[in-house]
Amino acid sequence: MKQFMRSILATALCAGLIWQASAADNEGFTSLFNGKNLDGWDGNPKFWSVRDGAITGQTTKENPTKGNTFIIWRNGKVDDFELRLQYKIINGNSGIQYRSKELGNWVVGGYQGDFEAGKTFSGILYEERGRGILAQRGQMTSIARNGDKHKVEVLGSLGASEDIQSQIKNEDWNDYKIIAVENRFVHVINGRVTAIVLDEDKEKQVDSGILALQLHAGPPMTVQFRDIKIKKLKPIQIGGVWNMEVFSDQGVGTPVFHLQQQGNQLLGQYEGLLGKSPVKGTVSGDVVEFNISGEYEGQTVTASYRGKMKPNGALAGEVTLNDEMLLNWSATRKN
């Protein structure tokens, strides 16, 4: 009965993740690859390049890798997110590392969305240089601590592995989606859920880490990645006092925002050219939207702000005045 209830809970939780990630569909995603060069990525140039608009890893008989090697995304770490990309593999094995740890010399360990040219491992959750396979393809599992080891408990089935494999294209482009929220992980290939994991192993679970792509040791192989984009699912925290600059042909406005955040809800007060005004808005991932209204030269002005947090912690975006004038803005938090 206990396992049955855990299975029901896991199904409900992860179904909620999938629904949440699909609800806004393409809203809020940030591209991680420009399709032209490896800006923002760091891998051994002996193996990684850009070819046909895709990040390409290749080994040959003359140029093998002695161990698994990775290309690492250098523009931050990932915690709660939805990642989408397309991959194509010819021979060998590869994977998508997330919430992982860099071990030096382009070696990475941690959670991995596995895939291969073969017909067994695509879609599993594997922990590179760690606990190994945490969910086979078609499994929903829970990971727990059992003394000095971990225990994988199968909570339910997502379908036969062979049926899932039949929807994966050989030597062609496939869609891979990974959703991670707290200790819950979902892998999806070509719209089919391949693995769900609840990592309840407090000693080994990881809530944040790097993102990387794998080139596996072994026989010659080629793997390619394109259309790589991510949406943060954990809302940024923007409470505090923000000094803003709004840029227009008439000069630079310098309003001040006193913001309070409660979950995804944003409240506060604006002080600036329009006097003082209450602020009301929302935070979704790294995207913030809020509105104010005030008087200027006898006219009511409504300003609608939308922006994103940059890697350096600043905010930047656009503001629309009375649904007509569009201006750019940036803001920094007062220490």
List keywords for this structure.
Lipocalin; single chain; 10-stranded mixed beta sheet; 8-stranded antiparallel beta barrel; mainly beta; 2 domains
Task: Give structural notes.
The protein is elongated, with a radius of gyration of 23 Å. It folds into 2 domains: 2-232, Jelly Rolls (Sandwich), CATH 2.60.120; 240-333, Lipocalin, CATH 2.40.128. Strand 7 and strand 8 form a beta hairpin. It contains 2 helices and 26 strands. The longest helix is centred in the first third of the chain and has 22 residues, at 2-23. The N and C termini lie far apart (53 Å). With 335 residues, the chain is mainly β.
CATH architecture field of the largest domain? Sandwich
**Shape call:** elongated
- As a percent range, the share of strand residues is over 45%
Low-confidence stretches: none
Number of domains: 2
The percent of residues in helical segments reads under 10%
State the total count of DSSP E strands.
26
Can you tell me the CATH superfamily of the largest domain?
Answer: Exo-inulinase, domain 1
The secondary structure category is mainly beta
Order of helices and strands: HEEEEEEEEEEEEHEEEEEEEEEEEEEE
* Whole-angstrom Rg: 23 Å
